[in-house]
Amino acid sequence: MAAMREDQLAGFVFLLKSEGRRSVLGLDCGPGTDGLLFVQSGIHFTGVDPSEEHIHSARARGLEATVAHAAALPFADSAFPSVWAVDALAGLPPERWDDVVRELGRVAEPGAPIAVVLPEPGEGFGEGFTVLRSPE
User: Fold this and answer.
1) Which residues of the chain are under the pLDDT cut of 70?
2) Stated pTM of the model
């Protein structure tokens, strides 16, 4: 499972580099595992997570990270050239998904790639992710 996640992240990093994007917002970043992979790939990482414990762990790894909830991010409009949010919808009720995706679109630059897993209501989350684009 971890190898698959690293492959997915590597594919997203390839997309970012091919588009000249040099930083990413990591939503629900956990202790920073994905963040370290972005940094090792030359992509600046800013993480957010609702868990103070996770944020402390991410910061201990040298990552820039802030406590925040997915539906109310403490960033300006169009602040990030890309967003990695593959865990953002996990555990949320379906009626909250649109709010989170809207908030991701708000903090992403126009046309920015946003990686999310779009679950089907009543079903489990898929193995892959979808790249949405923020509104132009």
Assistant:
1) 1-2, 118-129
2) 0.88
